[in-house]
Amino acid sequence: MCTGIPLQVIQNDGLRALCGDSQDEQWVDMQLVGPQEEGTWVLVFLGAAREVVSANRAKNIADALKALTQVMNGTLEYDQSLFADLNDREPELPEHLKSQLNPVNSTTR
Questions:
Q1: In CATH terms, is domain 5-73 a member of 2.30.30.140?
Q2: Which of 58, 64, 75, 103 could form a disulfide with 6, with the two C-beta atoms 3.0–4.6 Å apart?
Q3: What digits encode the pLDDT tens for the residues 85-104?
Q4: Calpha distance 54→84 (Å, rounded)
């Protein structure tokens, strides 16, 4: 499984950039998203930026990863703030599954 990590551009060096979060800094391949300004958030998979994301989206992803780490360590105490984007929201099925919710009209014989 490959997990995207949100990192912020610290220093731009053409098609690579020094990116980091509160715990780590690393050089990231920027070829798929192009050069980005300092302060821009990118989603990084296997050392390459795959998507430019907003600061809010980066925070939501980082919070979800924090919760996942706590679950894996057996230390999670439910904290709604870690899934702020899911609070007060009904789950939604993907479009291809919504049609399966409607019961097929059957006739009695």
A1: yes
A2: 58
A3: 666 777 788 888 887 876 65
A4: 15
Distance (Å, whole) CA 90 – CA 96: 18
Return the domain boundaries, the chain.
5-73
| Among candidate residues 89, 67, 91, the one with its CA nearest the CA of residue 79 | 67
CA 106 to CA 69: how far, in whole Å?
Answer: 48
Question: Are 62 and 83 in contact, with CB atoms under 8 Å apart?
Answer: no
Rounded to whole angstroms, the Cα distance separating 37 from 96 reads: 38
- 22 burial (CB, 10 Å; 0-12 / 13-18 / 19+) is exposed
Tell me the pLDDT band of 79, cut-offs 50, 70 and 90.
low
Q: ∠ at Cα 83 (70, 66), nearest 5°?
A: 25
